[in-house]
Design a protein that fits this description.
Strand order of the largest sheet: 2-1-3
Number of helices: 2
Structural class: alpha+beta
Radius of gyration: 14 Å
Number of domains: 1
Helix content: 10-25%
Oligomer: single chain
Distance between the termini: 23 Å
Number of strands: 3
């Protein structure tokens, strides 16, 4: 988190693991990857919100404003699972 946002966090839980072999990411530098993500819950314990080379914008958004934001469906799925406060992590 610190590298990409400037924030120091403490991990508080696991939302899930996410992979989709059809989701291929091609970066402008020629690197190509398949998606695999481990999504944690966390709380901020320090630092200051700051841009990185991997960021185009950083801001806090209320959960009620998420539907209006453009994002890949895989990102939306992760946020949905977090907001559902599931008893068990998603494994997919």
């Amino acid at each position: 988190m610190r590298e990409e946002t400037g924030l120091e966090v403490e991990i508080t839980g696991l939302v899930g693991t996410y992979t989709d072999p059809k989701h291929v990411i091609a970066y402008s530098d020629g690197e190509v990857r398949r998606q695999f993500a481990v999504v944690f819950t966390a709380r901020v314990v320090g630092g200051t919100l700051a841009m990185s080379d991997e960021s185009t914008e950083l801001r806090y958004v209320s959960s009620g404003d998420l539907d209006a934001l453009p994002m890949h469906h895989t990102q939306r799925l992760r946020l949905t699972h977090y907001l559902e406060h599931r008893d068990r992590p998603y494994l997919g």
